[in-house]
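Dear colleague,

Following up on yesterday's call, I've attached the two folding results inline so they're easy to grep. Please treat them as preliminary; we haven't cross-checked anything against experimental data yet. The first protein's sequence and structure tokens come first.
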Amino acid sequence: MIDNRRNFLKKMVATTVAIPFPNLLLSNENIQAEKKYPINFFTKPLDKYGNDFMIDTLKMGGVDGLDLTVRPKGFILPEKVAEDLPVVAEMAKKNGLFLEMMVSNITSDETPHAKNVLKIAAQQGIKHYRMGYFRYNDDEKAKETIAHAQTQIQSLIEINAQYGIQGGYQNHTGNYFGAPLWDLIGVLEKVASPWISSQFDIYHAYSEGYRSWEVGMEIMAPKIGSLAIKDFTWEINNGRAKIKKVPLGQGIVDLDGFFKNIKKMNITAPITLHIEYPLLEKYEENLSLIEKQKIIVGKIQNDVQFIKSKLHQYQLI
């Protein structure tokens, strides 16, 4: 059934026929009924630890799966994906964890190791990958950056369709393509492929447009393939505003509005939990590995429980 559907999608991509995006998201194919919003952990803060520590910590932390870094300086290096990714995938499976998401540096079909990374990832059951970023810069006008991003993103459709894996572009605060949302929305509408999606990040959407983010989310909704969640507050240092990353519910991000809109906009997609506040304080770095793990697990559990409470509150599960 899935093979037939994928063959159909490939034909549609080849003929560039417009098709309803939401009904074709791979997230809807692979999420069990009781896991409509599986909570996956963005592994960046655990990348310096080994396989056993990471898998054991995430299992105890109560997440459903991994959003694994497969990129330069990541947990898995792109040039070693064939050797190392199957090992992590098997460990995750044995411990009851999904491995359906990964974070990459892939921005086009010409990114080094891109085709092999996507091929191996798909073979190991990964359905979603976060793409690398494009930046606005002084060497070209903004419209040129947008056109370049569209060309690069377009180049990934065929390879994504071939391997059955969906790319997602994250909106990221700063001088990034996608930060204001409207630029990314425009490109996704022009590309019009179920193999390219938005990884909608509420933290970055809120920090860039704390009064207008809901409008962007509404327009983006049909293109959302995954949901990223974290929280922050503002600090003033030397007269300048600076973001301080904090546990979920301790910041200013409108997380109630976020979950309310997921329900209202009928978005079904896996969640990636980003913990970017310190998992360990400086004085805790000298503790034993077991003591460190206990502290880290507790912080992960708190954020996971926050997400689950909101999913229940807004009748999403």
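Below is the second protein, in the same order (sequence, then structure):
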Amino acid sequence: MKIETAFILCAGFGKRLNPLTLKTPKPLLKLNNLSLLENTINLIKSLNIRKIKINTFHLEDQIESFVKKKNFNINIEIINDGKDILNTGGGIYNMMKSSSEAESHFLVFNPDTVWDHNYLKTINEMINFYSLNLNNNTLLVVHKKLSFDQNLKGDFNLNKNKLKKDSDNEYIFTGCQIINRKIIEIDMWEKLENNFSISETWNNAIKKQSLFGFESKNNFKHITNLEIYQKLLKNN
């Protein structure tokens, strides 16, 4: 199975990084003189993905201008959420609608994780796992002991590559997932609305014991809030 297209979620307001994100969208904040968005695009290019779609809403003109000026030498399309922000699930669905009907599987990235080339092997292994198991949604997760931000609570527990939610969760969603078009379309058909969180899709899959996880062993750096961003700036 070959994944042709990756989505990058760039529509959010980044409120936990105010006041920085009042004038600069979070994906354009920098670490080591490299924006979070450029860092994510570089990783995707190294995965030999052919196309990238970026959804935007907050300060969308800045993101579009940045992509045009950079000339990343890969097919990048900007997909605006429209007059209202669509949330993560709605944003993914909106990008799927703009994709070829022949494409069923997509990589999805949150750019607020500090992606580096140590993730290449792990993500390629996750793609192989997804392909072999023919599941509809696989999330890259990491044990919270590997998180730079030790205040982050776990999102899931992981048992034999199946994800569930308990009162105490040990694994954090890294911000990378593989998703099948049909699982989103089923959710859309049931909801009849465009604005929804991808976590609703995950919760539906957990009820059916069909949400899969793949464990990353990489140290996890995520721009959670202004305090963590400032700490990362000092540590890099």
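For the second protein, one point worth flagging: The longest helix spans residues 119-133.

Best wishes,
A.L.
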